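ARCHIVE CARD
CATEGORY: sequence design from structure
SOURCE FIELD: tokenized fold
FIELD CONTENT:
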């Protein structure tokens, strides 16, 4: 399959009166259609900026960014976006939140809404209001809402960052299942090395000031993606080493 995303010499400066921040510096990246890519890096290395540019939420930059072979000039339904917070409208029920996001031609399509609520395991909550949902459930609704618009690519910016560890693991597994079933390209930005390795076929490692790609790892977890076992540990160790040097100071504690 071809590349759904092609980024060539992407540079992004944020300039205000006092200072200039080079958020991205000469980024070159190709992402294959149907793949799952993780982007990882410390705070401020330009991960969100890059995702926003791919999604058409940020349109001023130098270089070239193509999605599906076309220059990105605005957000569109074929580019779904999931943020760290769910951004559901509090005055609408779950079902109506999804309906609200749909194009006019699909607004009356209750079957479509039901299909995607069922996909994220929330069939019984269609009439609930956002305040009645847990953080994990709200994020599932956000995922259903994005997917109901049938995007070609789903962009996720730390979608599980605010969730507890157990909910997070469950949602990661569901996201993988959805990726396999729906056959769409997914790009996830995360701070979490385990999450990056578990989900991504490739892990793009970024460094800050200025934001650059340091390395791209290909993750080999064998035929089934599991978090235990040598392949996972080896993949994770490789990425840990990008960020942290083992302490060479001798130290000992006596307790
Ligand atoms: N709208 C903006 N105006 C000015 N500077 C910005 C703006 N958005 C981002 N920046 C700067 O660009 C750099 C990259 O920011 P970005 O939000 O992309 O980082 P990030 O990797 O997503 O960080 P985090 O992990 O903390 O979310 C930072 O130095 C930030 O201060
Ligand atoms: Mg960010």
């Amino acid at each position: 399959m071809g590349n759904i995303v092609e980024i060539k010499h992407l540079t992004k400066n944020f300039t205000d009166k006092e200072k200039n921040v080079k958020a991205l510096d000469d980024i070159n990246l190709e992402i294959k259609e149907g793949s799952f890519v993780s982007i990882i890096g410390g705070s401020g290395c330009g991960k969100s900026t890059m995702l926003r540019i791919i999604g058409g939420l940020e349109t001023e930059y130098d270089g070239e960014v193509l999605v599906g072979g076309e220059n990105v000039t605005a957000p569109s339904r074929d580019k779904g976006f999931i943020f760290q917070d769910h951004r559901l409208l509090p005055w609408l029920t779950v079902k109506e939140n999804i309906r609200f996001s749909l194009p006019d031609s699909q607004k009356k399509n209750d079957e479509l809404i039901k299909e995607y609520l069922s996909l994220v395991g929330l069939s019984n909550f269609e009439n609930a209001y956002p305040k009645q949902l847990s953080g994990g459930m709200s994020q599932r609704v956000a995922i259903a809402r994005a997917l109901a618009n049938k995007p070609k690519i789903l962009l996720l910016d730390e979608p599980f960052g605010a969730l507890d560890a157990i909910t997070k693991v469950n949602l990661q597994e569901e996201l993988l299942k959805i990726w396999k079933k729906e056959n769409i390209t997914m790009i996830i930005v995360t701070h979490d090395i385990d999450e990056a390795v578990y989900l991504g076929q490739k892990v793009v490692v970024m460094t800050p000031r200025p934001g650059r790609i340091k390395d791209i790892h290909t993750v080999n977890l064998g035929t089934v993606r599991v978090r235990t076992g040598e392949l996972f540990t080896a993949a994770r160790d490789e990425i840990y080493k990008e960020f942290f040097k083992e302490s060479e100071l001798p130290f000992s504690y006596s307790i």
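CARD ANNOTATION: Residues 14, 21, 23, 41, 43-49, 211 surround adenosine-5'-triphosphate (ligand 1) (CB under 6 Å). The chain has a mean pLDDT of 92.
SHELF: design records, drawer C
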